[in-house]
Structure prediction request, 390 residues.
Amino acid sequence: MIYLDNSATTRVRPEVLDAMLPYLSDKFGNPSSVHATGREARAAVDQARGHVADLLGAKVGEIYFSGCGTLSNNVALLGRARFVQANDLSKHLIVSRIEHPSVMGPAQYLESQGFKVTYLDVDKEGFVDMTKLERALTGGASMVSIMWANNEIGVVQPIEEIGQLISKVQTEQEREIFWHTDAVQVIGKVPVDLSKLPVSSMSFSGHKFGAPKGIGVLYVRELVNVMPIIFGGGQEMGLMPGTEPLSNIVALGEAARLAKLELDQLHSRLTAMQERILKTLLAIEGVDVTGPLDISKRLPGHVSVSLNKAQGEGLVVKCDLKGVAVSSGSACHKGIIEASAVLKALGLSTDKALGAIRITIGRDNTEQDIDRACQVLSDVFSKASQAVAK
Prediction:
């Protein structure tokens, strides 16, 4: 099987597995224990936190380990909302229309609790409308959540420009605006330097770049207040209580260390493979890109396309039968296939949105994988194009 669904999850790197295995056997201590075994575990957690901070250009005390990106997003938004309510601040949140459900869910919950939520439109490539963002910010919003890069269409938002706009409004109106970004798809693929980017908080997951499932990070900038929404023993400075998943934390730390070393080289490899697959697919009649056509504005290695009047799920199955794993842009609920909300936000028709496919290349993919994948994708899409044309 040629695995081209790396935006969904990645394989645990062998080096990461080697690093975590001792903490599943001999080095099994609880990091909260004061004896030697516990202190050994605490030292491993501290080292991993340092690796993550180094990757992000952050301070060690700004890194909180969580169970996943979804939990990080919920804690950031709902925890900040607690602070907003406790301090009688503006109950107005801005989110884009292409956010992950783990941001949309909290936004909708807060809306049901009396918050005003502004849902920012995006253009046909998925970029947020900066004019509407500025209007909502100057209109009194105290919270903003805009994802750095989208998992379905690969669009990378102009994050520096967004930061400059938020900083400008904060300065002009002399008030704090809490800015969160879901960076789950970014880490390990795009350079991140939080010493220069003024986000208040940021979330990501380890399993997107070579660590196991079940470990994530919430970054919270120093002096920014996010109140806990989970209560327990006070671990992770009280924000993410619960016994630390020691082996997974060690794994995430090692994945972060390796990601920093390999970032530039990986970016160029993924981009070259991405160009080959895009060229193959765009040569087929009826195939269009979803998200930005300019790959410099996309996640490296991310390809998303649509074939009008085709069934994305059917294309996935046909590729799977030929040994290539990709994913579709539609969702199946109780046997009913629905078009992706992200694709509909781009203005795509239902027929176009239902024919969407996502192909995401990872660090393990080889040139031979791409050779074979191009053959399979060309065959499957060409036949589907001919079928829908009849």
